[in-house]
Amino acid sequence: MGKLTFSMGGVHPHDSKYARECAIEELPLPQTVYVSMAQHLGAPAKPLVAVGDSVKVGQVIAEPGGFISAFVHSPVSGTVKAIAPRKDLAGNFVTHVEIAVEGDEWDPAIDRSKDLVTAIPDDKAAILDKIKAAGVVGLGGATFPAHVKLNPAPGKVAECLILNGAECEPFLTSDYRIMIERPKEIVVGAAIMQKVLGGCRCVIGIEENKPEAIAAMTDAVRELGYANMEVQVLKKRYPQGGEKQLIDAVMRRQVKSGGLPIDVGAVVQNVATSLAVYEAVQKNKPLITNVLTITGDQIPGNLQHNYLFRIGMPLSWIVEQAGGVPETAAKLISGGPMMGKAISNLDAATVKGSSSVLYLSEGMTRRKPATSCIRCGKCADACPMGLEPFLLNRLYKAADLEGLEANAAQDCIECGCCLYSCPAYIPLLDNIRQAKGQVMGVIRARAAAAKAAAEAAKAATNK
Amino acid sequence: MTLTFIWTVAILTVLGLVLALILFWVARKFKVEEDPRIDEVEKVMPGANCGGCGFAGCRAFADAAVKATNLDNQYCPVGGDEVMQKVASILGFTVAAKAPQVAVVRCNGTCSARPRINEYDGVQSCRVKAALYSGDTGCAFGCLGCGDCVAACQFGALSMDPETGLPVVDETKCTACGACTKACPKHIIELRAKGPRGMRMYVSCVNKDKGPVAKKACASACIGCGLCAKTCTHDAITVVDNVAYIDFTKCKLCRECEAVCPTGAIHGVNFPKELDKEAVKKRIADRKAKAAEAAKAAEAAEEKKEVANG
Question: What is the pTM of this model?
Answer without folding.
Answer: 0.84
